């Protein structure tokens, strides 16, 4: 009898185990990342109702954007368009300027040129441009590497205006000892052109723009040497943001290697914790702003996710990349409040409105 009882228990255990293994488990399947086709304006969308967002807060966000002189606004989640709005006569085909948000294009293409073996960001700028590209003493000029231009630590005078001709690039401090927001970064475009033997725009087009299906062109501002600004549609800006969300990968092609991309979007020096290689970084303990040597405590955009990194341009051109939410946010337009360099009070105000929708 005892043996029969034990056998009965054993059979029941086996049955229970088999039953558990066959019971379907209700686990959510992670949505695959989407990339729009190159050469097409077709872009997959995702209904906001599937995200459990607060749809009642959307009109308030859109009214705020329109009141603040926006021309366009896009939110991507996993690459799909969740919100896409245009204001004041703007449309999907209308180009607008990136301003300093385009610095991130320069940083990315510099990394691609290094990946292709044309240059090394640790080399002196004068190795590519020759001596005399600044008015600094030769010994001081030779301290400046391409990495210093990427990190805004050239030590050159940031108070002399946008002109980047040699006579306007004067010495203030040794490279690496002072952070100052300066248009001298544009010399990296000359470095890439010299190193590759191509024009900047030609190499940009073949190494980045065409590979991710962007449209647009560089337009010279007429201020100093080669100071150019990128103009494109909002969707082209969104394509670049999507590339950044995927750490330099587009579909199955690694456009820019992940090691460089991670360097580009993490703190790059000890002075401004909130700056990478021409990208702004949220969630750090302190930050510096253009045109001042003051240090401010706290995060750049307190209401935004701490892992967000940003391409910020004059008069509130914005690319926000938020890895923790698989999200990209784009804003183009006129200055929301008043003319500004990059970060403005609009960033925090906008994220309060965005949070009301997505949280």
Automatic annotation (TrEMBL):
It holds the Pfam family Beta-lactamase. Keywords: Hydrolase, Signal. GO terms for molecular function: hydrolase activity. Residues 72-330 form the Beta-lactamase-related domain. Transmembrane segments: none annotated. This is Serine hydrolase. Residues 1-18 form the signal peptide. The lineage of its organism: Bacteria, Pseudomonadati, Bacteroidota, Flavobacteriia, Flavobacteriales. InterPro entries: Beta-lactam-related, Beta-lactam/transpept-like, Diverse_Enzym_Activities.
């Amino acid at each position: 009898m005892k043996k029969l009882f034990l056998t009965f228990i054993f059979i029941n255990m086996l049955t229970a185990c088999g039953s558990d293994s066959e019971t379907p488990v209700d686990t959510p399947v992670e949505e695959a990342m989407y990339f729009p086709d190159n050469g097409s304006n077709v872009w997959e969308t995702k209904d906001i109702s599937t995200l459990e967002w607060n749809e009642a807060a959307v009109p308030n966000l859109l009214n705020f954007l329109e009141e603040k002189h926006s021309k366009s606004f896009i939110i991507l989640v996993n690459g799909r368009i969740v919100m896409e709005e245009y204001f004041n006569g703007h449309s999907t085909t209308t180009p607008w300027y990136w301003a300093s948000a385009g610095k991130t294009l320069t940083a990315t293409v510099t990394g691609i040129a290094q990946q292709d073996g044309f240059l090394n960001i640790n080399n002196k700028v004068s190795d590519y441009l020759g001596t005399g590209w600044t008015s600094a003493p030769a010994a001081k000029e030779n301290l400046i590497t391409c990495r210093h231009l990427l990190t805004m630590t050239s030590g050159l005078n940031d108070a002399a205006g946008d002109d980047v001709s040699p006579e306007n690039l004067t010495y203030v401090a040794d490279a690496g000892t002072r952070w100052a927001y300066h248009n001298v970064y544009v010399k990296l475009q000359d470095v890439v052109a010299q190193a590759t033997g191509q024009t900047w725009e030609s190499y940009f087009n073949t190494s980045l723009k065409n590979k991710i299906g962007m449209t647009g062109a560089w337009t010279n501002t007429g201020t100093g040497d080669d100071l150019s600004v990128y103009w494109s549609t909002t969707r082209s800006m969104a394509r670049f943001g999507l590339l950044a969300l995927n750490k330099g990968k587009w579909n199955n092609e690694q456009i820019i290697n992940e090691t460089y991309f991670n360097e580009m979007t993490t703190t790059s020096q000890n002075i401004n914790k909130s700056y990478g290689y021409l990208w702004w970084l949220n969630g750090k303990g302190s930050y510096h702003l253009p045109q001042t040597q003051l240090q401010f405590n706290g995060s750049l955009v307190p209401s935004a996710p701490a892992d967000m990194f940003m391409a910020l341009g004059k008069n509130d051109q914005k690319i926000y990349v938020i890895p923790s939410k698989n999200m990209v946010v784009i804003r183009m337009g006129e200055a929301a409040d008043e003319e500004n360099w990059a970060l403005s009070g609009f960033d925090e105000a906008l994220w309060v409105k965005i949070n009301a929708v997505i949280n």
